[in-house]
Amino acid sequence: MNNNAQNVANTALSKVPELTLIFWIIKILATTLGETAGDALSMSMNLGYLVSTAIFGALFLVTVSAQIKAKQFHPFLYWVTIVATTTVGTTLADYATRSLGIGYTGGSTLLFGLLLASLLVWYKTLGSVSVNSLNTPKAEMFYWVTIMFSQTLGTALGDWTADTAGLGYAGGAIIFSALLIAVLAAYYWTEISRTALFWAAFILTRPLGAVVGDFLDKPIAKGGLDFSRFGASAVLLAAIIACILIFSKRAATNSGH
User: Fold this and answer.
1) pLDDT at residue 13 above 60?
2) What single-letter DSSP state applies at residue 170?
3) Alpha-carbon torsion 219, 224, 226, 228, what sign?
């Protein structure tokens, strides 16, 4: 197959969005929604972390299966799957750090190890962890498992920064925003691997969303704004839908790295 034909085939198989500014805006909104919606189910509805994880885990499996089986890129399906990873990540991290009693430090360390292991196995199996190589169901499966681990890590890391490190929700948001700006600067002014920078940015948006979500719905006495978790989730969901509808999202072109 010549290069032009290969590019056409890869483009047709791509089922992820282009990595534009709007992608990152929706990603941060989705991670924040994951925090507020996860807390709404586990705390406001008093279902607990384990039951909530089972519910969101089932949603994750359904949406990932649909995403992998899809023949082309569907914006709403993709972002529903992302939201599913953020919600299950929220409740799973809370279950690990609170119900299992390993704390935010232990939870963050464990989940960071699982994330690195996922990336390593993916690389050893397929030779690339670039989103530009997602042209097989196996690659997609690694992609979504890695995302799920990154979302779970992000919740634990956000809680660790805000509580254990004592920076609070606003302080945590500033720290992770600064780190994202550093990644952006590295993208424009260094030759660091674009794949490494993508995953760094992807991982960092999750704890940013986690601390912003906590800032919105936690009590004022604990440094939050005490907004309704359901109300905040509804506003965030509406913002995500608006972004998808207003900005035409097409699949990224798979060129391989």
Assistant:
1) no
2) H
3) negative
